[in-house]
Model the fold of this input.
Amino acid sequence: MEEKMQKLKLGVLEDDRPVKLTIELPAGVHRDLVAYAHALSQELNQPAPDPAKLISPMVARFMATDRVFPERRKTQSAPTVRD
Done:
């Protein structure tokens, strides 16, 4: 019996107007991002994306699947964002 390969949570990355952030990641997290980029490139049959480009869709996916966040977001006032 052929085993069906499960898909990664991220798919094609959207090209959106970015907001620049500077962050520090533990080395292990960076290694995992590089490995994820490689796995994604194999799954989509495309060149590997820059690992830094994975952070935004990963955070967005995390927030979208957090069951508590939408309720808290509705009840809290939005923080001010500086451009």
The longest helix spans residues 27-44. The chain has a mean pLDDT of 85.
